[in-house]
Amino acid sequence: MAWRSSGSTNAELISNMLRNGVFNSERVAAAMTKVDRANYVLDKGDAYMDSPQRIGYGATISAPHMHAHAAETLLPFLRPGARVLDVGSGSGYLCAVLFHLVDAPGSQGQGKVVGIEHVPELVERSTENLRRDGLGRALDEARIEVVAGDGREGYAREGPYDAIHVGAAAPSMPKKLVEQLKAPGRMFIPVGTSEQKIVQVDKDETGAVTETELIDVMYVPLTDRPQ
Ligand code: SAH
């Protein structure tokens, strides 16, 4: 299913994914169409392939179908004005998609996305990527912030968050991230080592937490910072 959706333009990639049933939400499609993946990859020739790609420093930008799946899973919590944390933000691609979802009409400029990434060079590069993709003003106004740090700790300063996306696999559920979810709120996180599953963590209005396993996946692990 993954490769079938590749396109020759960004718009074609998104519409192929929609047509192939990779995801269904028009809101997600509109947000992904605003983000040109060519601004976030090293090899521009492969920008619209539905596959992960190396972005340097041992990191990869996830495949578009995984980004679509993540955004769609979090969608009920990505209302205009919501606050979002993207852990292991890498290229910055998903920060951009999430930002377009929460910076929609009705947000009154309140929507905010924080990316946390432990490779400082990627923090810098992703910030450049976001600027190239037209999001310089959002960065200047701190409506998108990319910070260097250990994502396993979350980023309590800007929390709690309506939605948290984790882009690398945790060996077990990171407590601090669950703490930093709003009530209600939802997290999308790959959990496991040799076998991994996407876990959807829901916190309800009372603060009660439930975990639902979604699909088997293969993500790079959340690690200590490379020396
Ligand atoms: N969603 C990103 C995924 C990047 S791959 C994208 O599509 O571009 C996973 C990222 O997690 C890598 O950039 C890696 O450097 C980062 N990472 C791994 N362990 C981390 C940690 N403990 N804290 C913060 N970032 C981490």
From TrEMBL:
Q: Which residues cross the membrane?
A: none
Enzyme's top EC category: transferase
GO CC terms on record? cytosol
What is the annotated signal peptide range for this record?
none
Q: Identify a single GO molecular function assigned to this protein.
A: protein-L-isoaspartate (D-aspartate) O-methyltransferase activity
How does it associate, per the subunit comment? Answer: Monomer.
Record PANTHER family: PROTEIN-L-ISOASPARTATE O-METHYLTRANSFERASE (PTHR11579), PROTEIN-L-ISOASPARTATE(D-ASPARTATE) O-METHYLTRANSFERASE (PTHR11579:SF0)
Q: What is this protein called?
A: Protein-L-isoaspartate O-methyltransferase
Supply the InterPro entries for this chain: EF_Hand_1_Ca_BS, PCMT, SAM-dependent_MTases_sf
* GO terms, biological process: methylation; response to stress
Which lineage ranks, top first, belong to the organism behind this chain?
Answer: Eukaryota, Fungi, Dikarya, Basidiomycota, Agaricomycotina
Q: Does the keyword Ubl conjugation apply?
A: no
Give the reactions, separated by semicolons, that this protein catalyses.
[protein]-L-isoaspartate + S-adenosyl-L-methionine = [protein]-L-isoaspartate alpha-methyl ester + S-adenosyl-L-homocysteine
Q: What is its EC number?
A: 2.1.1.77
Q: Which family does it belong to?
A: Belongs to the methyltransferase superfamily. L-isoaspartyl/D-aspartyl protein methyltransferase family.
Q: Which locations, inside or outside the cell, does it occupy?
A: Cytoplasm, Cytosol
Q: What is its main location?
A: cytoplasm
Keyword terms: Cytoplasm, Methyltransferase, S-adenosyl-L-methionine, Transferase
- Repeat among the record's keywords? no
Which Gene3D superfamilies has this protein been placed in? Vaccinia Virus protein VP39
Superkingdom of origin organism: Eukaryota
Outline what the protein does: Initiates the repair of damaged proteins by catalyzing methyl esterification of L-isoaspartyl and D-aspartyl residues produced by spontaneous isomerization and racemization of L-aspartyl and L-asparaginyl residues in aging peptides and proteins.
